[in-house]
Amino acid sequence: MHRLSYRHLNLILGAYALAMMGIAYFYFQRHLGLLPCPLCVTQRLCTIAFGGLALVAALHNPKKPSKQRGYSALIGACALGGALIAARQVYLQSLPADQAPSCGPTLPYLIEYFPLQDVLRAMLMGEGSCAEIKWQLFGLSIPDLTLAAFALVVVVCIWQLCRRVPS
To answer: What is the C-alpha separation between 132 and 129, in angstroms, rounded?
Structure first.
């Protein structure tokens, strides 16, 4: 049985991130006209980070297991960050309407007129628009699906960290 090489697995992770970004931008944003909320923007940044690291790891293709595990840990950390942000958004969407945070200014407005700490708080904690469910597939919202996508990457990275690398 052919085992998936380290390089090929990272190429797959890079392509997976590219597909996630393609769906987010071309389908949700351009086709459906859904503008990303602050938590969505943060999840996109985590996707770009893990995908970029995966492509760098594939190009570098280190032979030392310690370097392979280092890349896998970094990729997994970016995906775990994205999963935590997606979980936060799933939580906000599960709140009753009267308990959801109130809507604030849009992210471009925050970036232009507010200090960086307020922008980062909105990007990590979310606000009212993050609690809206704008689209569903089989009863799962976009953050539900994104959480599952990030969880898959985390599982692959854990497997990469635990698997025995042939000498």
So the answer is: 5
Residues 6+ apart with CB under 8 A from 93: 130, 131, 132, 133, 141, 143
Residues 32-68: pLDDT tens digits?
988 888 888 889 999 999 999 999 999 998 989 889 9
Residue 21 lies in a domain: yes
Q: What is the pLDDT of residues 118-153, one digit of tens each?
A: 777 777 776 666 767 787 789 889 999 999 999 999
- Which structural domain range is residue 87 located in? 6-95+130-162
Within-domain flag for 115: no
pTM: 0.84
Q: Which residue has the tokens 């960290």?
A: 161
Q: Work out the burial of residue 108: count CB atoms within 10 Å of its CB; fewer than 13 is exposed, 13-18 middle, 19 or more buried.
A: exposed
How many angstroms separate the Cα of 93 from the Cα of each of 7, 29, 88, 89? 38, 19, 9, 6
Query: Considering its fold, how many domains does the chain have in total?
Result: 1
